[in-house]
Amino acid sequence: MSRPTEHPAPGNETPPGRGARASRAAGATEVREGAPRRRGWLWLLLLAVVAAIVLAIVLTQCSGSNQNNGANGNPPPAPAPAPSAAPDPASGVNAADRPGVAAGQLSADGRALLPLSAVAGTDGSLTGLAGKEVTAHAIPVQSVPAPEGFWVGQNQEDRVWVKLLPQGSSPVDVKKDQLLDLQGTFVKNGDNFAASQKVAPDADAQQLDRQGVHIELPNSQPTVVGTR
């Protein structure tokens, strides 16, 4: 037996196509609700990228500015210079200026000669030094009693005669109390050497004859390094 056909009540009929449109409208609403969320994440990502680019530019400019300061006359401070050597109390000459010889000293074969009693014979002779190279640094001039030479040493007893070569020639005007650097040779005195040097026939001449040697300097010497 066939089932009777049901008909919707009057007024409840669904117009043709309305159900489909309602379904599509509901789906569209869901799509529209999800779109703003995706756009929000995209904006946040874009802002993060822009911030990273700005930070990189700022850091690059700061680094370039520091390098330019160094290249444009603003170098880092130089290290402080080392303090200079203190003057030698006896000579007033800086210790850093000593060419391997103590200030106020004569040296031959690496040996200090002053006081002369350490190297002189019992009679005061220094002939054992003949032919040896001698070096002096900041040696005081004791006196200049003659135009041919002068005395250098620590006092009236510990001194030796210096002869200038050629006779009486020197690049400087040697005066008493000057401090000299020199390098020469011990040479034996000839006959009547003191008289030939125009040294007065007194204690000076006797001392020069007793020592038996003198220092001869080339005409490029001595060098004045101070006064006492």
What features would you highlight for this structure?
single chain, 228 residues, alpha+beta, 5-stranded mixed β-barrel, 3 helices
Description:
There is one protein chain. The chain is α+β, with helices and mostly antiparallel strands. The chain has helices at 18-71, 193-196, 203-211; strands at residues 105-108, 111-112, 133-146, 149-153, 159-164, 178-188, 213-217, 223-227. The chain has a five-stranded mixed barrel with strand order 3-4-5-7-6. A hairpin with a 2-residue loop joins strand 1 and strand 2 (111-112). The longest helix has 54 residues, at 18-71. The model is unreliable at 83-98 (pLDDT under 50).
Largest sheet: 5 strands, mixed, barrel
- Oligomerization state: single chain
In N-to-C order, the SSE pattern is HEEEEEEHHEE
Estimated radius of gyration: 53 Å
Number of strands: 8
Give the N-terminus to C-terminus distance in angstroms. Answer: 152 Å
Task: List low-confidence stretches.
Answer: 83-98
Q: Pairing-aware structural class of the strands and helices?
A: alpha+beta
Q: Strand-residue fraction?
A: 15-25%
Query: What's the average pLDDT?
Result: 77
Number of helical regions: 3
Shape: rod-shaped
Helix content: 25-40%
Characterize this entry briefly.
With 228 residues, the protein is α+β, with helices and mostly antiparallel strands. It has three helices and eight strands.
